[in-house]
Amino acid sequence: MSRLVLRSLLKAAPDAVVREVALAWMGADAVAGSAGRAATIAAVAAAMESEERALQRVEALPRKLQDLLEPFLQAPSFACPIAELFAAQARNFKSRYDLEACLAAMHREGILFPAADKRSEEHT
Predict the structure, then answer these.
(1) Quick one: residue 79, left, alpha or beta (phi over 0 = left, psi -120 to 50 = alpha)?
(2) Which residues on adjacent β-strands are paired with residue 81?
(3) How large is the average pLDDT for residues 10-21?
């Protein structure tokens, strides 16, 4: 993912999501400061752009979430339509709700972000 795309996703995210992602990637001490939104986004993007930090974050995920990340890493533009993802990954989840809960967890962790593609259905 390019720096521009990552920063665009963070800029488009609501304040609560930016705070949650900053907490997940930088910890409570880093988030406790009163930096403005732009400074927080810049700091969290820098943390997310660190290959070492990203690998640590992925390794800390439960195995089920690590496995779920794999199709995104292989997909064009790192985006997967939810219907296709469920069809390919259904055996790993109790239901589509279970899959959606896992995607939401990865969103809270700042690993995946929902994205809309006007040409097709909802992606994450």
Answers:
(1) beta
(2) 123
(3) 90
List the alpha helices (DSSP H) in the chain. Answer: 3-12, 15-26, 28-32, 37-49, 51-60, 63-74, 82-89, 96-108
Residues making up the chain, counted from first to last: 124
- pTM, two decimals, is 0.77
* Percent of the residues in the chain that have a pLDDT greater than 90, as a whole number: 31
DSSP state of 33: S
DSSP state of 116: -
d(C-alpha 3, C-alpha 92), whole Å: 31
Q: What is d(CA 48, CA 26) in angstroms, rounded to the nearest whole number?
A: 9
**What residues does 123 pair with on adjacent strands?**
81, 115
Phi (first) and psi of residue 62, to 5 degrees: -60, 150
Percent of the residues in the chain that have a pLDDT greater than 70, as a whole number: 87
What tokens does 112 get?
């995946």
Q: Which of 114, 118, 121 is nearest to 17 (CA)?
A: 114
